[in-house]
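Is S-adenosylmethionine placement plausible here? Inputs below.
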Amino acid sequence: MEFIRNFSVIAHIDHGKSTLSDRLLEHTKTISERDMTNQALDDMDIERERGITIKSHAIQLYYNAKDGNKYTFNLIDTPGHVDFSYEVSRSIAACEGVLLLVDASQGIQAQTISNLYLALEHDLEIIPVLNKVDMESAMIEEVSDQIIDLIGCELEDIVHASGKTGFGVENILEEIVKKIPAPKGDTEAPLQALIFDSVFNSFRGVIAYFRILNGVINKGDAVRFVNTGKEYHADEIGVLQLDQIPKKKLSAGNVGYIITGIKQSKEIKVGDTITRVDNPCAEAIDGFENVKPMVFAGLYPIENEDFEDLRESLEKLQLNDASLVYEPESSIALGFGFRCGFLGMLHLEIIQERLSREFDQEVITTVPNVSYKAGTKKGEKLEINTPNDLPDMTILDYVEEPYIKAQIITKPEYIGSIMTLCLDKRGTLGKQTYLTPERIELTFELPLAEIVFDFYDKLKSISKGYASFDYVPIDYRKSDLVKLDIKLNGEPVDALSSLVHRGKADSFGRKICKRLKELLPRQQFMIAIQAAIGAKIIARETISALRKDVTSKCYGGDITRKRKLLEKQKKGKKKMRSIGTVQVPQKAFLEVLKLNEN
Amino acid sequence: MSGIYLHIPFCKQACHYCNFHFSTNLDRESAVIDAICREIQMRKDFLPTKKIETLYLGGGTPSVISEESLKNLIAELSEVYDLSSLREFTLEANPDDITVENLEMWKEVGVNRFSLGVQSFFDEELEYMNRAHSSSQSYKSIDLIRKARFANFSIDLIYGGHLTSSGMMLMNIHEAVQLKIPHLSIYGMTVEEKTALHSFIQTGKMDPIPETKQAEQFSLVMEQMAEDGYEQYEISNYCKSKKYALHNTNYWKGASYVGFGPSAHSFNGEMRAWNISDNNAYVKAIDGGASYSKEERLSDKDKYNEYIMTGLRTKWGVNRAIVTNEFAAFADTFEAGLAQQLESKCIEEKEESFVLTQTGKLIADNVISELFAT
Ligand SMILES: Nc1nc2c(ncn2[C@@H]2O[C@H](COP(=O)(O)OP(=O)(O)OP(=O)(O)O)[C@@H](O)[C@H]2O)c(=O)[nH]1
Ligand SMILES: C[S@@+](CC[C@H](N)C(=O)[O-])C[C@H]1O[C@@H](n2cnc3c(N)ncnc32)[C@H](O)[C@@H]1O
Ligand code: SF4
Ligand SMILES: [Mg+2]
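Reply from A.M.:
I modeled the complex. C-alpha cells:
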C-alpha cells in the first residue's frame, strides 16, 4: 500500500487537465506513442468533439520514482464545467490528493476556487501546478502570487508545467510520490469499498468503479452492496488502465472495477459500499449527497410509440450519469414523456445529444425551468417542477423561487457592465473583493431562473471572456410569478409554457414570440404565434405561408440528387412534432430561451 | 423506350448562374470526345435494349464542338446502337453558334430538334448573366433555325433574376409567343453554390433574391402561358400541340437511358450511375481503365420516392392504382400524405390521377416530400 498514490486532477474549465493527463500517461508509458491521441481520456464522442471533459475518467499508471521504487498511481481526470462539479466531488472521495491546475495565462478562476474547496473539505493534499507556462501570455509571477494567496503555500511548492510541451511532468510525478500520502487502510479488516462511479456496457452490464478502504476483494467472492442490501457474485474484478485489466485480488488502498452481471441500472447506487457476504463490514462508508438538479425539462419521444424505448435509454444513461433524474409526465401537446432534472443547460444538451447518438433516440425537450415551491390557501405545500403544476391563481397563496449566490471573478473594467447585467437579472450585489489590483471577486444573490439559461453566455460576451462564474444554491424566496402560455394557431402548447416574473412577462412574451418566428419553418399555411397570460394576449407574431419551394431549374437525368434533396427535406420534417397542424422542430423548445437582446 | 444522353462539357464562357459541369478550356475537345467514344463501347451492355428512340446532346454547350467530333460520336453510337427508329435527336445550342453552315451540318448528322439557350430578350439581363451572345443574335438564330426548316425546337428562358421585373418577364414570354416558339423551358433563376452569382450574394455585392419575387413571377409565368395556349406539362416546361420533349419526358416517366461523358447520368430500371464531373479525371480514368462513375441500386423505397417526385412534377401526375400495385408497402404513406395535400388544395384529382394544383406547383418540393417514404 505504501507504493500506491490516488489523486485527481482538478481545475477550472479548459485549464489543461486532460492535456496534462496525456503527458503523465505518456511519460509513464501507460499509453504507447502509437495509441496516443489528444485528451486520450476523453473517450466519449461528445467529449472529443466539444473538447471538454464531461465525465471523470480513472486510469492506473506505474511510475519508477527516483527513490528506486515502483509506484502505482490511480489518476482521475475530472471535468471543469460548473454543471459537472459533482463528478469532481465523487472523484475526490477516492483520493488522498489532488493536482490543482491553474492556467498561467488565465490565473485563478471561479471553479479553481470551488474545486479547491471541495478538495480541502476532504482534507486532501494539494499540489499546485502552474500550467501552460509555455504560453507567451503566461503571467508566471502574478498567477503564482494568486496561488500562494489562495492556498497559503510557498512559492517553491508550485510546480511549473506545460501539458503542451511536457515540461515539468517529471517534477509532478516526483511531487506526487513525495507529497501525497499513501492510502491508509487495513487489509485484514472486513471489505469496505466505496462505489464512486459506474458505467453501463451493453455486453457486460453494469461496471462499478470502486476504491477499497479496508480489506481485500477476490474474483469470485460473494459480495453485498450495503445500502441496497443486494448480493452478487464478483464475476470479474480488475484495475482500470486504458482497457480493463482483470485481477484475481485487489486490496485496501486500490482503485478498481467490478462486474457482477447486474443488468438493471436501478440496482446500483453510486456512493454505496461493497462488502463481503462471509465477513461483512460493520457500517457503510458515508456515500454522496444526492445531487440536486438545477433545471427541469420534459423529454418526449418524437413518436409517441417510442415512449418505452425512451424510458429504457434514460435508465441506461442514468447508470453512467447518476445526476440525471426523471419521472414520467404527460403533456397535452406532446403526449407521454419524462420530466427530467439536470445540473444545468450544458448537462441537458449533453443528455439530449447522448440519447440521439448512443440510443438513436430523437427527443423533444420542452422549455426548461427551475424548481419552485408553492403554497395554496388551504395550506398545502407543493413542489413545482413544471409550469403546468402551478395551482390556479384562485387557490394559490404564494410561490417561492430558488436563489443562488454567484461568485464572479473579473477585471475591474468590467464591473459596470456586469453589475448592470446582474441587476437586470433581479440580482443584489453582495461583497466586492479585490483579489489583486487587477482581479476582483463580486458576489451576487440572484434568482436561479435568471442565470441557468443564457446568463453565462452574456457574461462572457460583456466581459470579452474575462469573467468566470460559479454559484451555489442558497434558499427559496417569495416571488411574483405568472404562467406565460404560448399558442400556435390558437392552440395552447403546454410544452412551451414558462413561469416568469410578472415584471418581465411582457418583454419576455414578445421575445419568445420573435424567437419562435425564427425557429419555426414556414409551412403551407400561415402560422399565428401568441403569448398569453391567462386570457390576456400580450404578444403576437405571424409566420407567412411558404411562397415558393420548388426546383424550377433543369436537372436532366440527375434524378438521384434531386430525390436525395427531397428525402432530406422529409427527414427534417420527421424531426418535428405536429402540434395541431403546426410542425415544430425538435430543437425549438430548447432554443426558444436563447433570446437575443437585439 | 430507351434514350441516350451525351454530355458535352465545354462552354465558351461561364454564365454567372451556371453549375452544370463544363470547362472553358476548349483545347481538350478531342481528348474528351475520344474518351466519350471509348465509354460508348465500354458501357454498351448497360441498357436492356439496343433500340434507341431519343438522343440528347446536352452540356455544357454541344453547339461548340467541331463537325469532326460530332460525326465521330454519332459513328460510335451507330456502331453499338440501333438508331433506325430514332424519334427525337435534340442538340442544346447557344444562339452565337447558330450559323447556316452549322445548321446544315447538324441536319446532315440527324439532329431534328434544338434547345436554344435564349434566357432573356433583354441585353442588360444577358450581360448580368454573362452570356456569350446578345438578344439580336438570339432573334437571328431563331430565324435561321426556322429557315433551315427545323420545325421542332425549344428555347430556354430564366425568370426571377436580380434585374428581372415582372414586366420584363412578361415581355420575354410575349416575344416567345410572338415568335411562335413551339416549346419553352422556363426556369426560375436558382442561386447555386460555386457560381459567380452565389459569391456575389455571399460577399454582399448583390442581395439575395427574395422568395416572394420568384413566387410572383412563377405564378405569372404559369398564368400567362396558359393564357397563350401553352400546356404546362412539367413544372418548367410548356408546349403547344403536344410537342413534348420526348427525351426529358422519358426521364420523368421512368424510362431507361444511358449517359456518356463527364457528369452524365444513366439509369437502366434498377440502377442509377453518374460519371465523374471532371474532364481530366474522366479522360484519365477511361484511358487507364479505372473507375469513372459511381452507382446506386434503387431500393423499393427509392423507386417509390422517384415515382412520386417525377410523377407529381408532370401533368400526368401519380396514379393510385400504380401505387397500390407496384409500391404496396408505401400505400399507407401515400394515402396519408395525399389526404393532407388534397385537404390543403396542393393536389387535385384529374382523370384518375393526382396532380399538383397551381398552389401546389409553387411549393412542389414541399408537397412532394410530404408524400415521400422515409
Ligand atoms: N499552450 C498550451 N495549451 C494547452 C496546454 N494544456 C492544454 N492546452 C490547450 O488548452 C485547451 C484545453 O485543454 P484541456 O486539456 O482539454 O483542458 P481541460 O482542463 O481538460 O478542460 P475541461 O475538461 O473541459 O475542463 C486545449 O485547446 C489544449 O490544447 C499547455 O500546457 N499549453
Ligand atoms: C444544361 S443548361 C445548358 C444549355 C446551354 N449551354 C445554354 O446555355 O443555352 C440548360 C438550361 O438550364 C438553365 N439553367 C442553368 N443554370 C441555371 C440556374 N442556375 N438557374 C436557372 N436556370 C438555369 C438555363 O436556362 C440553361 O439554358
Ligand atoms: S448556361 Fe449553358 S453556356 Fe452558360 S455556362 Fe451553363 S452550360 Fe455553359
Ligand atoms: Mg478535460
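Short version: The two ends of chain A are 61 Å apart (CA to CA).
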